[in-house]
Design goal:
The complex is a heterodimer of chains A (187) and B (78). Chain A has helices at 7-26, 29-45, 56-75, 79-89, 120-132, 135-146, 151-158, 162-183. Chain A is mainly alpha-helical. Chain A starts with 6 loop residues before the first helix and ends with a helix. The relative contact order of chain A is 0.11.
Chain lengths: 187, 78
């Protein structure tokens, strides 16, 4: 066993970090816990393949990320039914002529739009709104904006077409914007 | 001609998102520019959309595992 690995310390040292990373991406406590468990098990099994090129922590995260992608892929068979709903979901925002519906019109937020925000409240709301998206929109949004992947890569990972991708990201952005506006009490 | 140049807000919001990812054609870009010059709602959407995009990377979870849950993780590794 390479000296750099210290499996006895894993649970104590990394569980919360791995768990937070996972729960943000799967939105379910039990699933997140299972993924962390599977990560440790896979790491144990592959201890001999660890070459020490990256840190123990990054190695565990790499395994977890792969586990999450596997989980997403299993979910992608739900894509077709959800996509039907997506097409209709845009009807909440636009009328049949493609104009904003009255109650959905974007209002101004009292903020500097060009800077990254410091407000803790904003991030809590953003997170809450993200967890309210339908599952696939949330997955696509997370891969794009939290994991900063290219859309082509996301399509490949989830086995969806680029037009599927645009439908879901379009819907996710509209839904997030409306949810933030509703919940963020700008003073 | 009007049909060729004018896009709806529904199309404009998608074009805004595509533009942000650099996945927009020249024609789409021109149509979007024209739309944004006359539509203050989509102009507002563009700003707010960008704010969401640049800040989302900072979203994090505050949740933790309980001591019991960590024990279980440990146990299953024995």
């Amino acid at each position: 066993m390479p000296e750099l690995l210290n499996p006895k310390e894993w649970v104590k040292k990394y569980s919360d970090l791995l768990f937070r990373f996972a729960i943000l991406r799967v939105n379910d406590r039990e699933t997140a816990k299972d993924l962390v468990q599977e990560t440790y098990l896979a790491a144990y099994r592959n201890i001999d393949s660890f070459k020490g090129e990256i840190s123990e922590k990054n190695w565990l995260f790499l395994i977890l990320k792969n586990k999450i992608i596997d989980y997403y892929r299993k979910k992608s068979n739900e894509i077709l039914t959800e996509l039907d709903k997506c097409e209709n979901a845009l009807d909440d925002y636009f009328d049949d002529k493609g104009h904003w519906k009255g109650e959905m019109v974007p209002n101004g937020w009292n903020t500097d739009y060009n800077s990254s925000l410091e407000s803790k409240e904003f991030f809590e709301i953003l997170n809450k709104c993200l967890q309210r998206l339908s599952e696939l929109s949330r997955i696509v949004f997370t891969l794009k904006y939290l994991d900063e992947k290219e859309s082509d890569e996301i399509c490949k990972e989830l086995t969806i077409t680029s037009s599927n991708y645009w439908v879901m990201i379009h819907r996710a952005k509209l839904q997030l914007r409306a949810c933030i506006e509703k919940n963020w009490l700008t003073k | 001609m009007k049909k060729f140049i004018m896009i709806t807000c529904k199309e404009a919001t998608l074009a805004i998102i595509k533009k942000e990812e650099g996945k927009i054609s020249l024609t789409e870009r021109i149509r979007l520019l024209i739309h944004l010059a006359i539509c203050k709602f989509c102009k507002m959407f563009e700003k707010q959309n960008k704010l969401i995009s640049i800040n989302s990377i900072q979203i994090s979870s505050q949740e933790s595992l309980t001591a019991k849950e960590k024990e279980d993780l440990e146990k299953n590794l024995q």
